């Protein structure tokens, strides 16, 4: 059973075109831990919808060409996912959703320690992201059409 991480704070939700021309996943980005040292990147979907495989999506973008590798463990893929979330927050995407303070939870499917700080984070937690407010969750889920 996956552990659940919870938090309250800034959340950025963006649709991500991951397979051309029309396959989207909705990503949510938040932070937790001391000074936000842990990046939280999750897919937004109703219960029962399978995990889209965020690390696999990242791997298809050949992140090792940009970030190199630390010898395995998903370092480059984690950095790529964090960059997507961080960039979506730094330069808001039209059609995205920026929540100044929201209660959220993540059904954590995995955690990757980076071994160094990237985009202000030392680790990444991925999994299914849920906004506690059902109205916000519906708004976030509606972003799937890009």
Mind explaining what this structure looks like?
The chain is an alpha+beta fold. The chain is built from four helices and five strands, in the order E-E-E-H-H-H-E-E-H. It has helices at 54-59, 64-67, 75-90, 134-141; strands at residues 3-19, 23-32, 38-43, 97-118, 121-131. A five-stranded mixed β-barrel has the order 1-2-3-5-4. 37% of the residues are buried. The model has no long low-confidence stretch (mean pLDDT 90).
Outline the secondary-structure elements.
Elements (H helix, E strand, L loop, with lengths): L2 E17 L3 E10 L5 E6 L10 H6 L4 H4 L7 H16 L6 E22 L2 E11 L2 H8 L5
Summarize this structure as a short list of keywords or feature phrases:
146 residues, five-stranded mixed beta barrel, alpha+beta, single chain, 5 strands
Short summary:
With 146 residues, the chain is α+β, with helices and mostly antiparallel strands. The chain has 4 helices and 5 strands; from the N terminus they run βββαααββα. The longest helix has 16 residues.
């Amino acid at each position: 059973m996956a552990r659940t991480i919870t938090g309250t704070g800034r959340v950025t939700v963006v649709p991500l075109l991951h397979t051309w021309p029309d396959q989207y996943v909705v990503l949510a980005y938040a932070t937790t831990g001391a000074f936000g040292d842990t990046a939280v990147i999750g897919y937004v979907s109703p219960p029962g919808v399978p995990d889209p495989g965020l690390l696999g999506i990242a791997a298809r973008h050949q992140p090792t060409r940009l970030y190199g590798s630390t010898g395995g463990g998903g370092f480059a893929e984690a950095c790529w996912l964090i960059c997507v979330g961080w960039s979506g927050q730094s330069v808001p995407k039209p059609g995205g959703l920026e929540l100044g303070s929201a209660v959220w939870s993540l059904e954590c499917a995995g955690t990757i320690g980076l071994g160094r700080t990237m985009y202000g984070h030392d680790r990444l937690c991925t999994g299914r992201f849920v906004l506690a407010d059902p109205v916000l969750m519906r708004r976030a889920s509606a972003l799937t059409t890009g």
